[in-house]
Amino acid sequence: MTLVHHPVDFEPSLVYDRTYASRRRWLVLGTTTVLNLLVVLLYVLPANLIVPNLTYAGRPALLLGLGMFCWWVLSRLDYRLVMTGPQPLRWVVLLYLLSVLFSYLAGMLRGLPSIEANAQNFFLLVTIEFLGVVLMTADGIPNWARLNNVLRIFVWCAGFMALVGLVQSTFAFNPAQYLVLPGLQWKSDLLDFAARGTGGLFRVPGTAAHYIEFSTVLAMAVPFAIHYVRFSATRNQRAAYAVLAVMIAAAVPVAISRTGVVALLAAIGVMFVTVWPWRTRYNMALVGGAVLGALFIVKPGLIGTLRAMFLAGEQDSSISARTEDYAVVAEFFAQRPWLGRGPGTLIPTIYLYLDNQWLLTLVTGGIIGVAALAGLHIACIRLSVLAMRRSTRPDDKHLCAALLSSQIVAILVGATFDSMSFTTYAFTLAMMCGLCGAVWRFTHPARVVRTSAVGGRRG
Length: 459
Hints:
Distance between the termini: 38 Å
Strand content: under 5%
Domain O-antigen ligase-related: 244-373
Subcellular location: Membrane
Order of helices and strands: EEHEHHHHEEEHHHHHHHHHHH
InterPro entries: O-antigen_ligase-rel_domated, WaaL-like
Transmembrane segments: 26-45, 57-77, 89-109, 121-141, 153-173, 208-227, 239-256, 262-278, 285-303, 358-379, 399-417, 423-442
Helix content: 55-70%
Low-confidence stretches: none
Number of strands: 6
Main location: membrane
Number of domains: 1
């Protein structure tokens, strides 16, 4: 039976010599509150709503990320404000940032036209916002209760995005046009529905910037929705999350995206292999079959269209376009193999639209950039696996496996679209990376690390 309160949360933090504090104390403006607000803004507001006169880096959620980076840096000025204890993600983030800065410098040294220089500056700003979310999530969440609070908000917001997508698909009506906060402006028009397949089928984006991004972030959310179906404290809560889980999973295929289907299968596959007992596996298979059956009835032709997309092979124009880019990538890579041509400088309207994040990073960041991005994923996988092995409670193990699945999904979808160019996906990934660092800390065998808190004793 799942306990309402996690026993580790009652362990006090050593803040000064012979002085302890509770990690369960509530802060009105703490990391959890800011993260919750960031998730709401990221998923509820359309992706092309920005603060007036700013670029896409001026999305309200991204500006919060910038504030979190400044918050983390300022906290380093006084040891009483620092989350003490080791945190491997800090070093990984430093290496990632250095790789971007070196690539940025290499781009400047080769001489850039103004459009590429602006693109580099934009990329650097978004990178800082991204890393702010990673660092504050890893260092700022104080206990399991706050971590679960963030993930519950995430699941509910993903459910809202899924609902928007299902409404778009069912009624060919876009409610996202009405999701506007006063004071914000549209950076660009909302993405139109795109016809795909036969029988009048069309793709929908929810509140995301693209159909692929919509399906991918929802696929990442499915394991967490299932987590709260299994481990919520009350029957009503489990029923509510069951509805959310089905709704989120059902919204993935309506984007009519191979990437979304692959992401969903990967996320479920990780859970299936790592932590699900056979009973849960059977139950998930039955639920999955029921969802597919319902989609077959409600959306005739959808399953057939998705199947045809996977079987088309090189006859599919989107696949052939990706493979035709390899020669251009090889030419760019040969010119600047180590640091690339500069982050963000492969502008689609000038050069080519490279629908592969790993190749895009190779061209713009070089071998060092690819190594840094891969290192971030590998480090998060390692931290989540360590936390899963250390955990003694089934719910903790399940949550760590869900975090592991998000990294596996990120690695796979990076080969199918330029994932880090889409900020809803990128900042979801940032939060997942930070949470991997948080669960590593919460499960650490040394209590002084496990209960590390702001104001902790140095050492």
